[in-house]
Design a protein that fits this description.
Largest sheet of chain A: 8 strands, mixed
Distance between the termini of chain B: 49 Å
Radius of gyration of chain A: 28 Å
Strand order of the largest sheet of chain A: 5-4-8-2-1-11-14-13
Structural class of chain A: alpha+beta
Number of helices of chain B: 5
Strand content of chain A: 25-35%
Largest interface: A-B, 72 and 92 residues
Shape of chain A: elongated
Number of strands of chain A: 15
Shape of chain B: elongated
Radius of gyration of chain B: 27 Å
Strand content of chain B: 35-45%
Oligomer: heterodimer
């Protein structure tokens, strides 16, 4: 056991805190300069795309304004939004962004009161700052216990590599993007669900357009004698419906979380088998989950539950229609 | 702090229940922040090592022997995080125990709590039949390649998925070909891909280099699938992840383009059907042949063929090569034998006592 080696990653994380505070320090100072302390600041890390989102309640005192426009001295964000609180509404007109400066428009702001919500989004470039502050893990694959398995359970875990940062600046950090590759190998289920008539029709389609003249002639002869297809459904429609199940938004219906993780966002992973056998059904879906890490709970665990049998049932239902 | 917190010691402790052998996995222990830490002891079994330790100052950590870590203080109260890593074991399926012991001082009284975690560590384990029987290769009417009636049996006896690369050994370059690269099939496939990708490039500005990476992979001769192409695959998966947040529809569109390309060939020739069947069957057995379209050109008559079979797990770790030497193939006529025809994951036949296959020795330990 090498302790020197083991604590290195935590020390590196403490160093990375600087990259993030380089943005956060001037950001909070600049916002506070508008009229006072910020209320319930929130910080979200979108780990996969290295985005940091900041939001807080903001007070503006117009007394300090010398003209109709006021420069907001904060680091240039990717996106910046202001919202009025009553009624809650975006105030995009109040922000004028030039190449290197942000201006606020007094007229638009003042008509909406003196309390606002601010949302700022930064991309932390260059370093792996965001992922460097948190360690997240999930299993590479789950143990298959047989066909009768109703659900598959993936454990999820996230922890802060350093707590210095969180204690000094923020009470809570939301971590978005602990990803898990969910095994959705369902081809056996699909094969089982294909009716004989459907299988026959797929064969006929293939034979009718075969490069082999003999095969094609036989198929044509058969079709002349039996002009009505055995399978009455629309093959392409079925394919489309099956594919639809794996669209990220639809696929989320087959996922659940337990414990401290939530908000599943999925994407269709180009799996290894997709490359060499481009089936319409992926082998794996990547699922991103979100958790909150706080000073009180700097580490949290949870579970991602994939309702595989429910998905299999839906597949069979589509194919049996 | 809530008042009841003082009464509890360990608030939460976590070590995963299972992981792939060789995988790093994180865990933690949280305890009441108002309690004073006396000593935290982490006892690891042989084969699991400490990779990272968080929220612990260097001066407060000591080791007892090779397997026990003792922590006497933490940076901010009530938390220690760690990352463990397992090695790969001789056995493809082991369950090991991690023990966490916490000694606290609460309201002047000392108190010791313990948590015991069992972690199942698994990996793929490939067994390949090594019998001396001669495989018979012949044309089945309607097929344009040689088929083998009773292929070599390959089984994954481990719980982890095995990706398998089969490389022809010691054959002249013109003997090895790619079944996908042959004639019209390949051309049709690439034509559809190119047409669709050209449309995607205009629909998704900025996606050119990503699409190029895909196209590059398709043009890859799968017979040369090696570490370089594996790293290409990795690169692709990485960039797909990044891309997803920017244009989630692009990956779906690519999937559709591939499906269209497949349909285009599917209607030309049925050879893909048998390929697909083989792939499906092996996938169900958690064996994925990474280069199924690699093919060997055979003359009519008897040949003796050598192959190297490399199993790779989902972490990308390659297990020792399983040499397949002197595979006897009797070809009834000259033709192309795709490698997906060579292996089967169907259960071993039991009705041939005389041909009882010998299996290769256990493979895959470090």
């Amino acid at each position: 056991m090498d302790i020197d080696q083991a604590i290195k990653d935590g020390l590196r994380a403490a160093g990375l805190v600087r990259d993030v505070t380089k943005v956060l320090g001037p950001l909070t100072e600049g916002l506070q300069g508008l009229g006072g302390p910020l209320e319930s600041p929130e910080l979200r890390f979108r780990v996969p795309d290295q985005f940091m989102e900041y939001s807080a309640g903001l007070r503006v005192s117009y007394g300090i304004w010398k003209s109709e426009k006021l420069a907001l001295p904060i680091p240039m964000p990717k996106r910046l939004h202001l919202y009025s609180l009553s009624p809650y509404a975006p105030l995009d007109d109040a922000i004028i962004m030039s190449e290197d400066k942000i201006w606020l428009d007094r007229k638009v702001l003042q008509s909406a009161g003196d309390r606002f919500k601010v949302d700022a989004e930064y991309q932390i470039d260059g370093s792996q700052a965001l992922s460097g502050l948190v360690y997240s893990s999930a299993p590479m694959e789950v143990v298959h216990q047989g066909e009768d398995d109703e659900v598959e359970r993936y454990w999820l875990h996230s922890e802060l590599k350093t707590t210095k940062f969180i204690s000094e600046i923020y009470k809570s950090i939301r971590i978005e993007g602990t990803d898990v590759a969910v095994d959705v190998t369902l081809r056996e289920d699909i094969k089982k669900a294909l009716s004989d008539d459907m299988r026959f029709e797929i064969m006929m389609q293939a034979n009718l357009s075969s490069a082999d003249r003999n095969v094609q002639a036989k198929a044509l002869a058969y079709r002349r004698v039996h002009p009505i297809p055995k399978f009455r459904g629309n093959l392409f429609q079925l394919t489309h419906e099956v594919e639809e199940l794996f669209q990220p938004r639809k696929f989320a219906n087959f996922l659940e979380t337990e414990g401290a993780f939530r908000d599943t966002r999925c994407m269709r992973g180009p799996s290894l088998a997709d490359l060499f056998l481009p089936m319409s059904v992926p082998d794996r879906m990547t699922v991103l989950t979100t958790t909150d890490l706080t000073l009180k709970d700097p580490a949290r665990e949870g579970k991602l539950i994939f309702k595989k049998s429910t998905l299999a049932k839906r597949l069979r239902k589509i194919l049996a229609s | 702090m809530p008042g009841d917190e003082a009464a509890i010691g360990i608030r939460s402790a976590f070590v995963p229940e299972f992981a792939l052998q060789g995988q790093a996995f994180s865990g933690h222990i949280l305890w009441s922040r108002s309690a004073k830490l006396v000593r935290l002891t982490l006892s690891l079994p042989d084969g699991i090592s400490l990779k990272h330790l968080y929220n612990v100052p260097k001066s407060a950590a000591t080791t007892q022997g090779t397997d026990t870590l003792e922590v006497s203080a933490v940076e901010s109260d009530g938390y220690a995080g760690f990352v463990l890593e397992s090695r790969r074991f001789e056995s493809p399926d082991v369950t090991l125990q991690v023990k966490i012991q916490l000694r606290l001082e609460i309201d002047g009284a000392s108190r010791t709590e313990e948590r015991l975690f069992s972690t199942n560590l698994f990996r793929p384990s490939i067994w390949v039949e090594t019998s001396d029987r001669t495989l018979t290769a012949e044309f089945v009417p309607g097929d344009s390649f040689l088929r083998i009636k009773e292929p070599i049996h390959i089984t994954n006896e481990g719980k982890g998925t095995a990706l398998v690369i089969v490389a022809p050994k010691g054959m002249s370059p013109d003997m090895v070909t790619d079944y996908m690269l042959q004639d019209d099939v390949r051309k049709t496939y690439m034509r559809v891909i190119n047409e669709r990708f050209a449309t995607l490039e205009t629909e998704f500005p900025g996606s050119e280099s990503f699409l190029e990476l895909w196209r590059h992979l398709f043009e890859f001769k799968s017979s040369r699938l090696d570490e370089k192409s594996l790293s290409q695959l990795e690169k692709l998966q990485e960039s797909s992840k990044q891309l997803e947040s920017k244009s989630p529809d692009l990956l779906e569109a690519i999937g559709e383009a591939l499906w269209d390309a497949l349909l285009a060939i599917f209607t030309i020739d049925q050879r893909f059907k048998s390929w697909a069947e083989t792939m499906n069957a092996t996938l169900a057995q958690s064996v994925v042949l990474l280069n199924p379209s690699t093919a060997v050109k055979l003359e009519a008559g008897d040949s003796s063929l050598d192959f190297d079979l490399t199993p790779v797990d989902l972490l990308g770790h390659a297990y020792p090569v399983i040499p397949l030497r002197g595979i006897k193939v009797h070809a009834k006529s000259a033709g192309t034998l795709p490698l997906f025809e060579l292996l089967t994951t169907t259960p071993l036949p039991t009705e041939h006592p005389g041909e009882r296959p010998r299996r290769s020795s256990r493979r895959g330990s470090n």
